[in-house]
Amino acid sequence: MKKFVKNLKFAWRYVKGQKLKVIFIILIGIIMAVLGIILPILSAELIVSLTSNKLWQLLSIAIIIFLVEIFRNIIRCLNDYFFNIIYRETFNNIQVSLGKEVLKLQNKTLDSNSSGFFIQRLMSDTSSLSSIFNVINVNMSDIICNIGVLIAVFVIDFWIFFYMLLVIILLFVLTKFQYKAYYSNDKKFRKEEDTVSGFTGEVVRGARDIKMLNAENSFINVMDQKIKKLNQTRYKMNAVNRTYNLINESVIDLSSLLLIIFLIIFLKNDMITIPIAIVIYNYSMKNVNIIYSINNLLQCIQDFNLSTERLIDIIDNNVFEKEKFGKIHLDKVEGNFEFKNVDFSYGNNKVLDNLSFKIKANSTTAFVGKSGSGKSTIFSLIDKMYEADSGEILIDGVNINDLDRESIRGNITVINQNPYIFNLSIKDNLKLVKDDLTDEEMIDACKMACLDDFINTLSDKYDTIIGEGGVTLSGGQKQRLAIARALIQKTEIILVDEATSALDNETQKEIQKAISNMQGEYTILIIAHRLSTIIDSDRILFLNDGHIECEGTHLELLEKSLNYKHLYETELRKNTDNI
Quick one: pLDDT band at residue 263, thresholds 50, 70, 90? Predict the structure, then answer.
């Protein structure tokens, strides 16, 4: 119970601006409970009037029942209305809060968990939390009503009351066992559901690659195994419920038979009257419902507790590590960088080894080296996607760990080799980085990114929907759209990660032109496999096994680095062979 109260307090913080409505539906629940006690009495009077041929009394009672039912329908409608508002707002608040917390998670946490792991919490668990107040209200209303009925039976006849109480206790014990068995299976089911959801998401996102690999059967087989395992756990949960439901229903049927026998004995011995017997029988059906209400409430509480704990793990607890930022804020970053003796490893794989270098503001610096030499890792550390194991990274002389989020992410734009383009229009993709983006700013940025001419060939121009991941765009067009986003952000620092490695020569020239348009006004860091794209850089750092082997301009490196010269000559030969 302590756990439930604690979790309920957690849920209550997300009922922003709706707390009066929650109080109102609680009052409605109390009214519904009172009506639930009154109606069986009126129904019994109706039957007595009918059997006694008291027609005017019969009509009067029928009208009263009609009015009571109309009133109950109206307040039930009001209850549904307020509940939907409470559910909608709570669901929205908790999802937004959870979404913010997911975006704060460290990249290594996201790397080690599938997307489905978090999607399930965003959708299923938030829904369970949002509905708890109505679930409690409805079930507690039924329970209060049934307790009132028990009190009424106690007033009418103690022995019938004692019998009903024994039946309720027996059913409650059975329900407790059912609840305990269901809980252990449900916890396992949630974990397996996360796995299936994550894998299914990967299949959908990777559908094109799966087709190209002709691997449909392999993926379907893996999916089939995961779903079968999930369904096996679901089957165990359902089997528990079926078994206990069979026992509960049998106990209820037997208790109804025994009650009728008791009523016959009482009537034969003139211990009760026929109207009282009818009232008791009507009430007996209500008392059976108390078990259903308790059972439903217990299952909902266990579902709520489990869902809330999964959400608390992300929002409040330290189960999943989150990014840490400092408190120093830089209104305007100039763009000077320095790495001082930086070490970094992915697990046991050391990527950067005592790395040190400086970069001046508004300069263009390129990083080259073989795959795995640490180029992309440097970018991830600059943008604080990962944290260095040791050493210091300075931006304008301030340790990156002391800077707040906005000072880092608000001043750095990363253009990746495969930039993620959202399933929105071109305009909306660009507005993601600036809400108040004007058409003039948008067009100017796209012109600088050498993209405006292409956009104007489209039927809907800037309003063209470009599909999930920008599927309707070529690789070069995605790159140029990413560059346009960077220009709209107007950050002082732009990181270009392998921007032209997979593009044809013509598209490469377009990208180079777009990058050249930014040189001199921004601090630009470029990673490139094609050395031809960075020969005009102010400075080139040649990396080897996590440290800088040499640095200088393109011509200087040709003079003093055999490895750099070898890479450049190899590229020249490839280009010659392709002509």
Answer: confident
Tens-digit pLDDT profile for residues 487-534: 787 777 888 876 555 455 665 666 666 666 666 677 888 887 677 777
pLDDT for 383 equals: 84
* Alpha-carbon span 293 to 300, nearest angstrom: 10
Nearest to 417 by CA among 511, 500, 525, 515: 500
Domain that holds residue 142: 13-315
Q: Is 235 found in the same domain as 147?
A: yes
Half-sphere exposure of 183 (CA within 13 A, CB side): 16
Which of 10-24, 48-62, 205-219, 469-483 is predicted least confidently?
Answer: 205-219
Ramachandran bin of 397, using left for φ above 0, alpha for ψ from -120 to 50, beta for the remaining angles: left
- Distance CA(375)–CA(391), nearest Å, equals 17
C-alpha–C-alpha distance, residues 557 and 543, integer Å:
12
Identify which has the larger pLDDT, 75 or 579: 75
Strand pairing report for 390-395 and 337-346? antiparallel
Q: Angle at Cα 380 formed by Cα 525 and Cα 491, nearest 5°?
A: 50
396 and 475 together in one domain: yes
Helix (H, G, I), strand (E, B) or coil at 483: helix
For residues 370 and 280, membership in a common domain is answered with: no
Interatomic CA distance for residues 26 and 441, integer angstroms: 53
| Partners of residue 412 on adjacent β-strands | 493
Q: Has residue 8 been placed in a domain?
A: no
Q: What is the CATH number of the domain that holds 51?
A: 1.20.1560.10
Tell the residue number behind the tokens 């050391």, with chain if given: 350
Helices 274-315 and 2-12, interaxial angle, to 10°? 70
Single-letter residue type at 213: L
Same domain, yes or no: 353 and 480? yes
Burial code of 244-266, b = ≥16 C-beta within 10 A, e = fewer? beeebeebbeebeeebeebbeeb
287: β partners? none
